[in-house]
């Protein structure tokens, strides 16, 4: 998931080095935290994002002796984060249901990048939130990793520790359900 400059240690090598020098683990935080934080913030809102990302790295640090160096560290970390997000599933579902009722996105910090995007999101937001709340936790996790974290199917499969075909099926099922729940545009465009 993260590319490194020539001569830089790979993630697995840093994990191994951190067993001798724990401060080496900080480089993994530098490499992976921004992307993970952005995704978690979209999933759980700004209040929980800092805590969940910190807990994801703390868990990875505590379990680094068990890390299989043949596996991608980023995928392992995203799997840890996905497990922590699953624990917040009830909170997340309540958040989407509140969005569906009120039209106010609880994960929005009030700063829109573009006015047009904000207007479109406001129009679709409640219906999208209701549709997302109706998905099972793992299907929602997979489709949001694809849409919000811009992860590949392979990265999602590795993060969720699922076969690639299962991930594709989950995303297809989620997209179908989301399309049915959202208002359709006229094809006359």
UniProtKB/TrEMBL annotation:
CDD domains: Sigma70_r4
Keyword DNA-binding found: no
Residue ranges annotated for the RNA polymerase sigma factor 70 region 4 type domain, each copy included: 127-178
Keyword Amino-acid biosynthesis belongs to the record: no
InterPro entries the record matches: RNA_pol_sigma-70-like, RNA_pol_sigma-70_dom, RNA_pol_sigma70_r2, RNA_pol_sigma70_r4_t2, RNA_pol_sigma_r2, RNA_pol_sigma_r3/r4-like, WH-like_DNA-bd_sf
Similarity field: Belongs to the sigma-70 factor family. ECF subfamily.
Protein name: RNA polymerase sigma factor
